[in-house]
Design a protein that fits this description.
about 300 residues; alpha+beta; Alpha-Beta Plaits; eight-stranded mixed sheet; about 50% helix; globular
């Protein structure tokens, strides 16, 4: 066993469970939300980030101190950049999905109510192996998980503990608000929170700054994404459903994911585009394309 410094990242979709239990369609489409979060994060996972575990609707990542202070600072900057790339990809995709789905299930009609919480903490952990798999453990790992349950209002935000903010804050854009969290067995901890609600609204409404041809391409890409994600999500729910479904209902989950696909794009493509044209620009002050670069990059450009 070895003890070393590390950065812990926990990403969690919140608010979807109460919608998933409505029916089999909502269960499968909720599973797509989980899978898309995991996929978006895994696209950013390479050295130096290590995927520790997929914990249901959350992803647990960490980066270990390489043992050199300069390399450690560079690592913190690189991870900050990965967080920005993740937000850019995930939030932009969420905006397209909200405005492109023809589905009326509980998950899809409440997509704008689903949350995304990212918790980042820096501390120490014990590095060891369990059944041949690398593991990290210790008080700071426990504290990072407890930070998912906090007093911060809302369900779309990036939260950094003070140790993480001291290490990474200078590389992250946006305004951060301070909160104090208390947990049994730990001293009170100051956390820094950047709320993401405006970013989600911006991504949703930025679609209407595009031409009709560009939006048609986005809809095609959305359908391709659904076709790729739907069957794995259906199989996952058939094997381990969010609630009790009959065997017949679970088999229908997979049947729906296969039999309905051929007609899905044909039936809804033109309908969605027409509905977008009628809906037009939503009346919010956030209808601008996202710029998620760090402050210093935006200033220099």
């Amino acid at each position: 066993m070895q003890q070393d410094n590390l950065i812990i990242i926990l990403a969690d979709i919140s608010g979807y469970t109460r919608f998933m239990v409505e029916n089999r369609t909502s269960a499968v489409h909720g599973q797509i939300c989980i899978n898309s979060l995991i996929e978006a994060i895994l696209e950013q996972v390479d050295i130096p980030l290590t995927l520790q575990e997929i914990e249901g609707d959350a992803v647990f990542l960490y980066a270990r101190n390489p043992g050199d202070e300069t390399l450690w600072q560079n690592l913190a900057q690189e991870i900050s950049s990965k967080l920005l790339k993740f937000f850019d990809a995930f939030i932009s995709a969420t905006g397209v999905n909200i405005e492109s789905t023809p589905c009326g299930c509980a998950i899809c009609r409440n997509a704008d109510k689903l949350g995304l919480k990212i918790v980042v903490h820096a501390g120490e952990a014990v590095f060891h192996e369990l059944a041949g798999r690398p593991q990290v453990s210790g008080p700071d790992v426990i504290l990072a998980h407890r930070l998912l349950k906090n007093s911060v209002p809302g369900n779309k935000y990036l939260l950094l503990s003070d140790p993480a903010f001291e290490l990474m804050g200078q590389h992250l854009k946006g305004d951060f608000e301070a909160f104090i969290e208390t947990y049994e067995g730990f001293d009170p901890l100051t956390v820094r929170v950047r709320f993401l609600e405006e970013d989600f609204l911006a991504a949703r409404d930025a679609i209407y700054s595009r031409t009709e041809a560009e939006r048609a391409d986005l809809i095609d890409n959305y359908f391709s994404w659904v076709e790729r994600m739907l069957q794995p999500a259906a199989v996952a729910q058939m094997r381990k459903p969010i609630r009790s479904f009959s065997l017949f209902e679970r088999m229908l989950m997979v049947w729906d994911s296969v039999a309905g696909l051929w007609q899905f794009r044909r039936t809804f493509r033109s309908k969605i585009l027409a509905e977008q044209n009628v809906r037009g620009m939503r009346r919010t002050q956030f209808a601008q394309p996202l710029d998620l670069r760090p402050n210093e990059e935006r200033i220099s450009s």
